[in-house]
Specification:
About 60% of the residues lie in helices and about 5% in strands. With about 240 residues, it is mainly alpha-helical. The chain is globular and about 50 Å long.
């Protein structure tokens, strides 16, 4: 298949390669975020026919938790504005979709999952609701660098009930602000969520602030490794 060729359907790809449709859907989403596939309304998905080089970070960006924190800082620059725009522009169906994605995170955690895919889909839904497809493309592009990192943060948060409750509360606050059409509130809650996520890594022992204010590693932890520093479980104390 070459540039301009129509892709097989999701079901056909899944059956041919013996994988689930969820796996195929995620792979297609990643390829679309890199500009390698394009959707044509009413016609299907096609291989992009342009030769532009897709945006990509240095491969070493995933070599440490510190490097991933730097990618999160890139995300923080746009995440607040995306939430603010979603509060202004999301239609009723998009708000309902964000609510469903929020509920899916709790359902995954209750079923014993790590909730990473559901967490990413929640933020993706907000990006899709902001009324600017370019923001959605940027969020989708960053996902490939954040997925393994999020597995570390979710594992860290799962060790403490107060962390888990804080994350749940932060997600809910973002949704509530968007549903209430509170643009300033949505921006504030989204930025707080990202800042608190980094703070939880520090409290969990994965990061410590350096004298220059930049994060440095407390433990040798790569994003693909969710083996975290040992810590006594806590159930009542909330992070500052």
């Amino acid at each position: 298949m070459g540039p301009g060729s129509r892709m097989p359907t999701e079901r056909q790809i899944a059956e041919k390669h013996g994988v689930s449709r969820t796996v195929v859907r995620e792979a297609v989403h990643q390829l679309k975020s890199r500009g390698l596939l394009v959707t044509r309304q009413g016609a299907g998905i096609f291989i992009a026919d342009h030769q532009n080089r897709p945006l990509a970070f240095d491969p070493e960006v995933m070599e440490s938790v510190e490097a991933v924190v730097q990618v999160v800082e890139v995300r923080r620059v746009i995440e607040g504005e995306i939430a603010a725009l979603a509060a202004q522009r999301a239609n009723r169906a998009q708000v309902a979709n964000i609510r469903r994605k929020l509920a899916a995170i709790d359902a995954a955690a209750s079923a014993g999952g790590d909730g990473v895919d559901e967490d990413l889909e929640f933020h993706r839904a907000i990006g899709e609701a902001c009324g600017n497809p370019q923001f959605g493309q940027i969020v989708a592009f960053l996902e490939q660098y954040l997925r393994d990192a999020m597995r570390v943060t979710r594992a860290n948060e799962a060790r403490r009930l107060d962390f888990m409750e804080a994350v749940r509360s932060e997600h809910r606050a973002i949704y509530d602000a968007i549903a209430a059409r509170d643009s300033a509130g949505a921006r504030k809650r989204a930025l707080e969520h990202l800042a608190n996520g980094r703070r939880r890594l520090e409290l969990g022992g994965l990061l410590r602030p350096s004298p220059a204010g930049r994060p440095s590693l407390r433990a040798s932890t790569k994003p693909g490794n969710t083996s975290l520093p040992q810590q006594r479980p806590q159930s009542k104390r909330r992070p500052a």
